[in-house]
Design goal:
The chain is of the alpha/beta class. The chain starts with 9 loop residues before the first strand and ends in a 5-residue tail after the last helix.
Length: 671
């Protein structure tokens, strides 16, 4: 038993929606319930550097997070929340530097309101929290990158150097293995790819020369990680012990860090959302608890901050009550159980040590493989890492569909009583405010009308000039924030200097299902026969309209469609409806499949349908997949969508059969 009870981890819920004011109310409500830190979710336009009035933002404003297009909205977001007393995590990557600048300026303004002679150095010294700022995993999983990898890494390194020198308590980066697991990573890949990312980041900071050799240990000490924990909680706990050992090894041997505290593996966690099910969603509660145990049971590898998803996230946006339930799960474990009273309960376990040894050895080998390619950036640009993740995810999907991996309520024990939790599905989730986009547009318009345009132009011109040199971009970014520039203007200025980038999809070289099985064999025959009747091989366009970068589902559909015999057209993420329809015309496809997980389906799908009708593509059925409430699915079907697939439709082979059926029906072919 420990000499004294350990302090619990920082408890957060990941939250933000509709508007800064609504999100502020939610934050203050959660803090009053005992939450000890904030975790801010930003909407997709903010994450990808667009203002609400950009055509690309249509339907996306306030949907998966809070829109922050300018300093005024950041003020509203943290109104009556003293930032020098708060620990704030901001899930932001491509625009991390910009959002950190807005956060810092708001903290300075709060201090000035209290004391007109406030010393900003003291304010900066008190700021505590994290900017996610891991851009490499964006190319692999989440898809909210903007600039090419080298330019993005420069922004990351500049932010790290600035915070180490000016905001010493701030964690300037979370190396995110969380999203890698969501994209299908095995424990070995999650360990190795995250550590390769950390090496790339540390090397970039070191090579920039912005931090003295004496202070480089501080850089290493401020690196934090954001991990995932699946339901195989023993394996996940061993993974965390492997992370601790490997990080200590890398920081000591590669970077010569002598201070053990600076070599400590510091991580926060959100447990796995990939395994949450729409079928029998009440089972998600025990899944979340088991996943939480994987990152809390082992004292020597315990998370420093934990945020848990809600039971209904496979259905839609959780309500405040659902988030409260997840917070209470943490509080019961921390304050009612005896977990925090003991030293590490796994020290000396032969079984655990053997598993950790195996994981460490496998991860070392994968790290060496990536480093031999030239490191994480080279492995992103070549498509290697993405291809490996798509293949791993395809293998996992195949095991679930074959029944080899059991998912309770999905592929076994499917008989169920009606759930009172989902008796009224429309009331079981929270919907984003439909007026959020109008409010955001009005906010941007009013903001621009009141600012000093000359000061904004000067600030953005300096940002562009600094971007062309090796100057740290945080200084110019802070001035742009203070001058009143918008998120889209900041990102747009850098787009003009750095250009944009489209990451490899990983689909072309991905390995699909090895054993076709009877069902897939039947679908292949149907695809072949239908193609012959229509005069050629069936072609399926898989499209991701809008700013949604969650491409895992689209990639798996593309891989399985290829396995089923379709010719697949997949151009990656963030396409406009016009681009999707143009591709459908150019490729003469037989079906268009749209994947949308951001909640923008009611805006974007009708637009695609209208454009297709104008192009005379009435015989090309449209299939939609995503997290789509039943009421929305009914409306989409009434508008002309041929079929809607949601997470409960876990069988991709059945989905392929549905696509063939839709094509045959559209062409009047007999079953």
């Amino acid at each position: 038993m420990s000499a004294q009870k350990d302090r619990p981890w920082v408890m957060r819920t990941y939250a933000g929606h509709s508007s800064a004011s609504e999100s502020n109310k939610l934050y203050r409500m959660n803090l009053a319930k005992g939450q000890t830190g904030l975790s801010v979710a930003f909407d997709l336009p903010t994450q990808t550097g667009y203002d609400p009035d950009s055509p690309l933002s249509r339907g996306e404003v306030g949907k998966v997070g809070v829109p922050i297009p300018h300093l005024g909205e950041m003020r509203h977001l943290f109104e009556d929340i003293p930032l020098t007393e708060m620990n704030t995590s901001m899930t932001i990557n491509a625009t991390a530097m910009w959002l950190l600048a807005l956060y810092q300026v708001v903290a300075e303004e709060q201090a000035l309101a209290e004391d007109p002679d406030a010393d900003f150095r003291q304010v900066h010294a008190q700021l505590a929290g994290t900017t996610q700022n891991d851009i490499i995993k964006e190319y692999l999983s989440r898809g909210t990158y903007v600039f090419p990898p080298e330019a993005s890494l420069r922004l990351t390194a500049d932010t790290i150097a600035y915070t180490v020198n000016n905001i010493p308590k701030w964690n300037p980066i979370n190396i995110c293995s969380y999203h890698l697991q969501e994209a299908g990573a095995t424990p070995t890949q999650e360990l190795a790819f995250a550590l390769c990312t950390a090496i790339a980041v540390l090397d970039a900071v070191k090579d920039s020369g912005q931090v003295s050799a004496d202070d480089f240990e501080k850089v290493v000490g401020r690196i934090s990680f954001f991990v995932n924990a699946g339901v195989r909680f023993v394996e996940e706990m061993c993974k965390m012990r492997a992370f601790v050992r490997l990080w200590d090894e890398i920081t000591a041997e590669r970077y010569g860090v002598k201070d053990e505290k600076m070599r400590r593996f510091r991580y926060g966690v959100q447990v796995n959302s990939l395994g949450l099910t729409e079928a029998q969603p009440e089972n998600n509660v025990q899944r979340i608890v088991l996943e939480m145990l994987g990152v809390t049971l082992s004292k020597n590898a315990r998370a420093r901050a934990v945020q848990l998803p809600a039971w209904n996230e496979a259905l839609g946006l959780p309500r405040p009550w659902d988030q409260q339930w997840s917070l209470r799960l943490q509080q019961v474990l921390a304050f009612e159980s005896d977990l925090l009273e003991y030293d590490d309960i796994f020290d000396g376990s032969v079984v655990i040590e053997a598993k950790v040894d195996d994981m460490v050895a496998e991860a070392r080998a994968e790290v060496d493989r990536v480093q031999a390619m030239g490191g994480a950036v080279a492995a992103v640009e070549s498509g290697y890492m993405k291809q490996e993740l798509v293949s791993s995810h395809a293998a996992r999907r195949g095991r679930i569909e074959s029944g080899e991996d059991v998912v309770v309520g999905v592929n076994r024990y499917e008989t169920t009583e009606p759930s009172p939790l989902t008796a009224d599905l429309d009331a079981a989730i929270q919907t984003a405010d439909p007026e959020a986009e109008k409010q955001a547009l009005a906010s941007v318009s009013a903001w621009k009308a009141e600012r000093d345009e000359e000061r904004v132009r000067t600030a953005l011109a300096q940002l562009a000039e600094d971007a062309k040199t090796g100057t740290n971009l945080m200084t110019a970014t802070l001035e742009a924030a203070r001058a009143g520039a918008t998120t889209g203007e900041w990102a747009g200025t850098l787009r003009e200097v750095f250009g944009e980038f489209r990451a490899p999809t990983g689909v072309a070289g991905a390995v699909g299902v090895a054993d076709a099985g009877a069902e897939l064999t039947r679908v292949r025959e149907s695809v072949r026969r239908t193609g012959e009747e229509l005069g050629g091989r069936l072609r399926l366009l898989v499209g991701k309209p809008g700013l949604d970068g969650h491409s895992n589902g689209a990639e798996q559909v593309a891989v399985r469609a290829r396995d089923a015999g379709f010719e697949v057209v997949y151009q990656g993420i963030r396409l406009t409806p016009e681009q999707i329809v143009a591709a459908a015309v150019a490729e003469d496809v037989h079906c268009v499949g749209l994947s949308i997980l951001s909640g923008s389906h009611m805006e974007l799908v009708p637009e695609v349908l209208d454009l297709m009708r104008r192009e005379g593509l009435d015989d090309v059925p449209v299939i939609v997949g995503g997290i789509i409430p039943d009421s929305d699915a009914k409306q989409l079907l009434e508008l002309g969508v041929a079929a809607v697939f949601t997470p409960k439709d876990f069988s991709l082979t059945d989905a392929m059969a549905g696509i063939v059926t839709a094509i045959r029906k559209a062409h009047g072919l007999a079953d």
